[in-house]
Design brief:
The protein has helices at residues 80-84, 137-140, and strands spanning 28-31, 43-49, 56-61, 72-77, 91-95, 100-103, 109-113, 118-122, 131-134, 146-151, 157-161, 171-176, 185-188, 199-205, 208-217, 221-229, 232-238, 248-254, 258-265, 268-275, 284-291, 301-304, 307-312, 317-322. The longest helix is centred in the first third of the chain and has 5 residues, at 80-84. It starts with 27 loop residues before the first strand and ends in a 6-residue tail after the last strand. It has 328 residues and is mainly β. Strand 8 (118-122) and strand 9 (131-134) form a beta hairpin. It comes from Taibaiella lutea.
Length: 328
Amino acid sequence: MLSSFATPLSYLPNPYMRRKIFQYPKSGDYKTDFWGIHSMELHPSGIAIAPWSGYLAICTYDAYTSDDKPTGHLFIWKKLTDFCNYKKANYHYSMDRPQSVAFDNNETLYVSSPENGTIHYTEDINIAPDKMFRLDANATNNATNPRGMAFNDDNEMYVMCSNKSSGRNASIVKVNNPANPDLRQMQEMLNSEQSEPGALALAIWGDKLYTTDLNGLAKRTSVNRYAIDENILVNKKSMPDSCGHAGMTMDITSDGDKVYFTNLVDGNAYVTQWDVNSLSPNPTRNFKLGSDAGQYTAWGIVVYEGFIIVADTARNQVKIIQETQLEY
């Protein structure tokens, strides 16, 4: 076990992944009924771990109620180990239609609400994310529906916009100084347009940006990789056909040479690991979460200390698995 002062070499290239403390999760199924007040039968969506403190944030959404007013929640644990020991969340905030959650390098917490077209944030987790901004239609060519969010080493935000409401394909918006309304600037990334409206998420490692796409080529190569050049995406590559049928891909994360994403194939939900530099004819490994339950599908995913933490939405739980549980 690493000492409290150790810094694994694998974390050195990316400041976002340098952590002050190291926690050790436990594999298992973590149902929503212990998370906090009124937390039974919630559907987890976004998951994020703060880069320095290790705080765990999970947002959830509920099914539509009889009066057609959906509700959502944000739960935050100060310690991942507390979550793994079935302790209630330290913080619980009600939110309207949240989907994705992310921490920036300063541990400002952001939550996207795609149906409302808004991103909510707070610099202090003791306070609910009550600050908010919308994407600037003039600067983003009417890109809408913010879903997945990611930050580069310079703390610039990248947002996947599914754009369903505007009748155009999904694209990526770059936001500088997102927590400062006086300095905030937005610009749609050149060459970021996806194949159809239904792209959901993105991840960044170094100068590489990865996206998921519900409508990838023949629903197989539905993970894309780009190089970031200022405000332009270049050298697009799609996951090769040798990786098999990726199906509809949802959320995505990376820890360098490996990319992890949630996806649906033939009615089943999976976690998939893609070794992007592998020369093997089978560069992916999978873990079957279970059958898809209609509108509720696998979504949020993060990796931490050799564990994969995923929102197993159809079963109202977060599932933690070890990388050794993945199979070719």
